[in-house]
């Protein structure tokens, strides 16, 4: 395209409507998309879609994440490992033995 500044024949070509169509048809992403169809079809043809592979699931590990009420252990008020959220913890405001140490 830079050469069209020096060569009049190329300048005439680049000012034509055909050059505009050529720029659209030979736009690099479009050309890459069109040329990649054969490659993608060849790659997909090699894949065996009939065989289904299921990952190994450890249901015991999932059970260890949840507390007695079915909530994650960190947020379960019935699980002592939830820290201050545990109902039996004296730092929990819902506990009967709670003492508000920060009263104004």
End-to-end gap: 78 Å
* Largest sheet: number of strands, sense, barrel closure: none
Shape: elongated
Mean pLDDT: 78
Unreliable residue runs: none
Number of domains: 2
Transmembrane segments: 12-35
Keywords: Membrane, Transmembrane, Transmembrane helix
Q: Can you walk me through this structure?
A:
The protein has 104 residues and is an all-alpha fold. The chain has two domains: 2-46, no CATH class; 54-104, no CATH class. Helices cover 40% and strands 0% of the residues. The longest helix has 19 residues, at 28-46. The termini are far apart. The model has no long low-confidence stretch (mean pLDDT 78).
Describe this structure in a few short sentences.
Keywords: Membrane, Transmembrane, Transmembrane helix. With 104 residues, this protein is mostly helical. It contains four helices and no strands.
What characteristics describe this protein?
transmembrane, 2 domains, mainly alpha, membrane, transmembrane helix
Structural topology:
Layout: H1 8-14, H2 17-25, H3 28-46, H4 59-65
Transmembrane segments: 12-35
Keywords: Membrane, Transmembrane, Transmembrane helix
């Amino acid at each position: 395209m830079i050469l069209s500044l020096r060569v009049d024949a190329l300048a005439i070509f680049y000012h034509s409507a055909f050059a505009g169509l050529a720029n659209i048809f030979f736009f690099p992403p479009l050309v890459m998309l069109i040329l990649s169809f054969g490659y993608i079809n060849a790659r997909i043809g090699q894949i065996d879609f009939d065989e289904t592979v299921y990952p190994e699931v450890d249901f015991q590990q999932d059970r260890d994440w949840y507390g007695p009420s079915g909530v994650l252990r960190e947020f379960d008020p019935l699980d002592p490992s939830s820290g201050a959220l545990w109902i039996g913890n004296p730092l929990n405001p819902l506990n009967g033995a709670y003492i508000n140490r920060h009263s104004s």
